[in-house]
Fold this protein.
Amino acid sequence: MDLTAIREAQQRIRGYIKRTPLERSETLSEYLGTNIFVKLELFQKTGSFKVRGAFNKLLSLSAEEKKRGVVAISGGNHAQAVAYVSRILDIDAVVLMPQSTPQNYLDATIKYGARIDLQPTIRHAFEKIKTYEAEGRIFVHPFDDPLVMAGQGTLGLEIMEDLPGATDIIVSIGGGGFEGGISTAVKSLSQTVKIWGVETIGADAMSQALKAGHPVELPAITSIAKTLGAPSVSFQTLAIAQQNLEELIVVPDEEAVDALKFILERLKILTEPAASCTLAAAKRIKNKFSSDSNVVLIFCGGNISVADLCKYAAISSSNGL
């Protein structure tokens, strides 16, 4: 996966996705003392960036592979993306999801036309994938696939096209494919742009992998940011992170929720914790930026239910934003 593959993905998926806005936030710029831009990817089809990779993968399948159908694993956003893309391209889809998946993700995935196979945990889901592959289905991995990563990397191209003077980009990390695609695109165009990764405590597979020097499997996902809940990263995504990340910031759920509330109240945008954690990270490293920096926060998704939002209302850190 390189810049050529990402540019090819951009052409391949152009007619199927939205080019989401990149806007300067006066509120966040004043708050952090620099120029803060927000990439509003939560306004993407299905509510997250995941359709970029799903479209690139499925559009690359042969006619015979499409007839065999696809299978995916997801705790939320990838499930909806694969279901939606499969419906658009008339491909049969099965999605394995953990039983802890929020109901709004289950409902949306079913509505898009995929069949759900609920498993006790995400680990069980990965174990069962072999059964579906043996039946002939094509596995659409949520992050460890060059075509999926190239699709996600198209977001990086958009940022650099819309803001050539970007100095810093803050991106959430689950399994690492999103960061891998974006950082590959950005670093191929400008080595001076700093890529800052963010995870939440309890969904910090990349942080643990970077410390260990190899992928580490988490015993459980305990963070409320379920869409960051990959049980482990891959050797491929770890290698890209080792090469491209300036730093990885791990924030507690409470700080992600404080940021979510602030974004909702001041920017009038409802993000999920996996997206709002970018603001929490920016607050932690604001001394790394100058008044002339152009910092991009990627709001990667907004698939949050009213029920979960009400639960989060009671969660707060000691200092808030």
